[in-house]
């Protein structure tokens, strides 16, 4: 912990502002076997720490999860529906799976909660991964077809739709870094193709979702790190903000693939989802520079920099011209006091951005639960709620009460 001024009141928010917390199907449901991720977790040499296994058993315990959201006095629950369950084989749709998600949404509505529904959160059905996944352009029309079937089944219960979650991370980590499926390293051609297909899939899904039933805002959610460029390659040298970069700097394509491609694809959307965890210092090629000695880092090894969100909402709003929803923001920490500090400083920075006129329509803390953190397994704790992985008992942490108090202060 460090010295910081603890925020005690967020103050009034514009009408319609949504407070919430987020999860994703594969990270909490358990037994999500028909996906590229499950196979990746069970393939030797991929670097994934452990299997997602039963995860938090939210496939069965989702009522408890909704109650936790309700108990915090939040407006909304952001969660994802699992494509591989809804469409277990090409063109074959499961009514049982569709009904399962419909029941969650109907129950949430009955409890006075809004449903913020993500249609793709990292996992791709196995049958589609075997066709080349995000590098095969056929995925564009398959994704739109799946969205069409899903929205027809439960669109009336959707309050906000997020088409694809962090396509930039799926493409970068999957095809360049190799730590997500399909585990390619330095495969720039696939990185570029996947980016193109992700953008096209988002654009194809939007009118399908807009056709309803239901009438709700549609957007894409993008991982945007607060990135400081050191064009001379010196971590201690001068910083250039992403607003001031020369057009032809060496990392221009990387920056486009990482962020701007999606802010462009968002043109005409109702909002853009901003997901920020940290500040990163990068060299002229856009690749991360080593941390200075003594850098305070989170459990993920990322710089502890809660104020990052203030800069990223400004960037996303200015670049896209759209209203922003902070669809994810949070910290992995063993000491919950660090999470309280993170929320306090992050929401102070968000308040400042809003005071400066940035059109922010909502904020979602990641995550409701300690859950399966992809290649890192269950060790990083992002949750407002502790989960016992044997009994699946949920215990809210002090940070959940603190977050709830700030939300209450805005009413
Ligand atoms: C993802 C989440 C993930 C979180 C923390 C985002 O990249 O959407 O699934 O757990 O950040 O790494």
Architecture overview:
There is one protein chain. The chain is an alpha/beta fold and 411 residues long. The chain has a single domain (18-409), classed as TIM Barrel (Alpha-Beta Barrel). 38% of the residues lie in helices and 15% in strands. The protein has helices spanning 25-28, 36-41, 58-71, 83-86, 95-110, 126-129, 138-154, 167-177, 188-210, 252-265, 308-320, 336-355, 398-409, and strands spanning 18-22, 76-80, 114-120, 160-165, 218-223, 226-229, 271-276, 279-282, 324-329, 360-366, 385-387, 394-396. The strands form three sheets. It has an eight-stranded parallel beta barrel with strand order 1-2-3-4-5-7-9-10, surrounded by seven helices. Strands 6-8 form a two-stranded parallel ribbon. A two-stranded antiparallel ribbon has the order 11-12. Helix 8 packs antiparallel against helix 10 and helix 9 packs parallel to helix 10 (252-265). It is globular and about 55 Å long. It starts with 17 loop residues before the first strand and ends with a helix. The mean pLDDT is 98. Beta-D-glucopyranose binds at residues 24, 27, 165-166, 169, 223, 275, 328, 366, 373, 382.
Brief overview:
This protein is α/β, with parallel strands linked by helices and 411 residues long.
Q: Can you tell me the CATH topology?
A: TIM Barrel
| Strand arrangement, major sheet | 1-2-3-4-5-7-9-10
CATH superfamily: Glycosidases
Q: What multimeric state do the chains show?
A: single chain
Q: How many domains comprise the coordinates?
A: 1
Radius of gyration: 20 Å
- Biggest sheet features: 8 strands, parallel, barrel
Ligands bound here? beta-D-glucopyranose
Number of helices: 13
First and last CA, distance: 29 Å
Q: What is the SS-derived class?
A: alpha/beta
CATH architecture: Alpha-Beta Barrel
Strand content: 15-25%
- Report the strand count: 12
Mean pLDDT: 98
Provide the helix percentage.
25-40%
> What form results from the Cα inertia axes?
globular
Poorly predicted ranges? none
CATH class designation: Alpha Beta
The ordered string of helix (H) and strand (E) elements is EHHHEHHEHHEHHEEHEEHEHEEEH
